[in-house]
Design brief:
This protein is of the alpha+beta class and 215 residues long. It has two domains: 5-93, 3-Layer(aba) Sandwich (Glutaredoxin), CATH 3.40.30.10; 101-205, Glutathione S-transferase Yfyf (Class Pi), Chain A, domain 2, CATH 1.20.1050.10. The chain contains nine helices and four strands; from the N terminus they run E-H-E-H-E-E-H-H-H-H-H-H-H. The chain is globular and about 50 Å long.
Length: 215
Amino acid sequence: MSVDIQAYLWPTPNGKKIYVVLEELNIPYDVRLINIGKNEQFAPEFLKISPNNKIPAIVDQNPPKEFGDSPISIFESAAILQYLADYKKGEGAPDLYPKNPRERVKVNEWLYWQIGGLGPMMGQSSHFSSTNIDYAKERYSKEVDRLLGVMNKRLGEYNYLAGDNYTIADIASYTWILYNDKVKAEDTPYPNIKAWFDRISERPAVKRAAEKAKL
């Protein structure tokens, strides 16, 4: 059976977002693994899809009519999450990107918070943790702790980042929190994040994604 979505992925936090959203939305898909350890992201064929030579990226072979008759390629994880939730939601799938403008603004806020803050800062903190550059280690470690404090406060007020409902904003942050042992520890200083993380981990679609992406 042919499928519409070809997903170009590698099991990084950003790549794992796409596994989760595809499973949540009941979208059939094929995975084309791009081994970034072997520099496959620089292959000319992949650069036609993702000119920034980064995963994730997707190609939709059968986009909605308003996109025209030809396939469409999309790179950047937030753009992919928004597109799939808006246009490719499968039967029986949850509403991960609400149409209500007030609710959608909140989803966008927390989605972009992850894209511009949590993800990059966790990445830098991890990178510099194995160096002797004390200034960088302290700077990024403190910023990650600050961001986790913001997140923990928010999740003490609401069940999910954008409010009472699970959305693509939660998916975006979840796959980064996977890599934070401080949050997942039993004596975590971030109990609200841990409770949120544990709830999401029990979702059937997330469990399926975990099997496929080795979350």
